[in-house]
Write a structure and sequence with these properties.
Layout (H helix, E strand, L loop, with lengths): L1 H20 L11 H4 L8 H14 L1 H18 L5 H15 L5 H17 L9 H26 L6 H7 L4 H14 L1 H16 L6 H30 L7 H12 L3 H36 L8 H33 L1
Helix pairs in contact: 3-14, 4-7, 4-14, 6-13, 7-8, 7-9, 7-14, 9-11, 9-12, 10-11, 11-12, 11-13, 13-14
C-alpha cells in the first residue's frame, strides 16, 4: 500500500513539475520578456479575414450545402424565432416612440433598435429542454463538420459533404466535454453580467467609490473568462484530431498559446467585431425594407422575413467562425513548426 502511495505521489509530482517547466511565469517572481514572449508571424487582421473568406468562398458549393443542411435541421428540431413577437415589438416601438423615430434617420434608429432586440434573442421562443439539447448538438456538429472539411481540403483531398457529415461526428463526446469546459470558463463573465444588471437596478453605478470598485471587479471577471477561452477555442479544434482526449487537447492548446495569448485574443475579438459589423450592415437595411413593404401591403405581415434572416445569418456565422478559428489555429501551428 505504501509503495503504491509513493508511486502515486511521484507521478503527481512529475506531472506538476512537467507542467511548471512549460510555464514562464511564477508567483512573486519577475518574468523577463525574453522568457515569455514567443514569435508569432501572422497576416494582418484584414488580410487574414480576407484569406478566411476566400478559402470559404473558393469551396462555396460544399459550404453552402452544409449551411442548408444545418439550417433545415435547425428549422425542424429547434424552430424559427416568432414572427408574432417581432410584429408586436415593432408595433410597440412605433406607438411608444411618438415623433422620436420620424424622418429617415428616425427609421434607421427604429431599425437599429429592432436589430438589437432580435439579435439578443428578444423574439426567440422559449425552447424546451429537448430543443436546447438539439440546438447544442447541431451547433457542435456544424463546428466539427466545418473543421473536418477544411482539414481535408487543405490537405489536398477531394471531399464531399456526405463524407464530412458521416465522419466528422466521431469525436462528439470529446468535443462535448471541451464545450462544457468552455461554458464553465464563461461563468465569471456571466456573474459579471448578472452583477451589472443588479447594480443598474439598485443605482450602484451612479457614481462614487462603489461604482469604481464594481467596474474593477467587472473588468477582472471579464478578463479571466477571456484569458481562459482563448486557448479553449483551439482545444475545440484539437479535440477533433483522431485519438485526441479532451484533457490532453486542453493542455496542448494551453501550451500552444503560451506567450501568444494576448495577440490571439485580439484576433478572436476582431473576429467577433467583424461578425457584429456584417450583421449590422445586413440586418438594418433589410429590417427597413421589411417595414416599408409590410406597411404598404399589410396582407403579407405574417411572412417571417426577419426570423428567416436570423436563421440564415446564424448559419453563415457558424460556418465562417469555425473556419476562422481553424485557419487561425493552422497558422499558429505552422508558425510553431517553423
Amino acid at each position: 500500500m505504501a509503495v503504491k502511495k509513493n508511486k502515486y505521489v511521484a507521478q503527481t509530482k512529475k506531472r506538476v513539475t512537467s507542467y511548471l517547466d512549460g510555464r514562464t511565469h511564477r508567483s512573486f517572481r519577475r518574468s523577463k520578456r525574453r522568457d515569455y514572449v514567443k514569435e508569432l508571424k501572422l497576416p494582418g487582421y484584414i488580410k487574414f479575414t480576407t484569406y478566411v473568406s476566400k478559402t470559404v468562398w473558393s469551396n462555396r458549393k460544399i459550404f453552402i450545402l452544409l449551411g442548408v443542411v444545418y439550417a433545415v435541421i435547425t428549422l425542424l428540431l429547434v424552430g424559427l424565432a416568432s414572427q408574432d413577437l417581432y410584429n408586436t415589438m415593432s408595433s410597440t416601438i412605433t406607438q411608444t416612440s411618438g415623433d422620436l423615430f420620424g424622418g429617415g434617420l428616425g427609421q434607421v434608429g427604429k431599425a437599429g433598435l429592432l436589430f438589437l432586440t432580435t439579435a439578443t434573442g428578444g423574439i426567440s421562443q422559449n425552447l424546451t429542454e429537448a430543443q436546447q439539447i438539439y440546438a447544442g448538438l447541431i451547433l457542435l456538429l456544424a463546428w466539427m463538420t466545418t473543421v473536418w472539411l477544411l482539414r481535408n481540403i487543405l490537405a489536398g483531398h477531394k471531399v464531399k459533404l456526405r463524407d464530412g457529415l458521416y465522419n466528422a461526428g466521431a469525436p462528439i463526446v470529446s468535443t462535448f466535454v471541451v464545450a462544457i469546459v468552455f461554458i464553465v470558463q464563461l461563468l465569471p463573465l456571466g456573474l459579471a453580467l448578472i452583477a451589472y444588471s443588479a447594480a443598474s437596478a439598485t443605482g450602484l453605478l451612479n457614481g462614487g467609490v462603489e461604482a469604481m470598485l464594481f467596474w474593477i471587479a467587472f473588468g477582472l471577471l471579464t478578463l479571466l473568462s477571456l484569458y481562459w477561452i482563448t486557448s479553449t477555442f483551439f482545444a475545440l479544434v484539437m479535440v477533433t484530431l483522431p485519438g485526441m482526449y479532451p484533457i490532453r487537447a486542453i493542455k496542448t492548446a494551453n501550451d500552444l498559446v503560451l506567450g501568444r495569448r494576448f495577440r490571439l485574443l485580439l484576433r478572436l475579438i476582431w473576429m467577433f467585431v467583424m461578425v457584429l459589423l456584417i450583421w449590422t450592415l445586413v440586418m438594418i437595411p433589410i429590417i427597413m425594407i421589411d417595414m416599408w413593404v409590410k406597411d404598404a401591403w399589410s396582407a403579407i405581415s405574417w411572412f417571417p422575413t426577419i426570423p428567416l434572416l436570423l436563421l440564415i445569418l446564424s448559419t453563415i456565422t457558424v460556418v465562417w467562425v469555425s473556419s476562422y478559428v481553424y485557419l487561425l489555429y493552422r497558422k499558429v501551428v505552422d508558425d510553431e513548426s517553423n
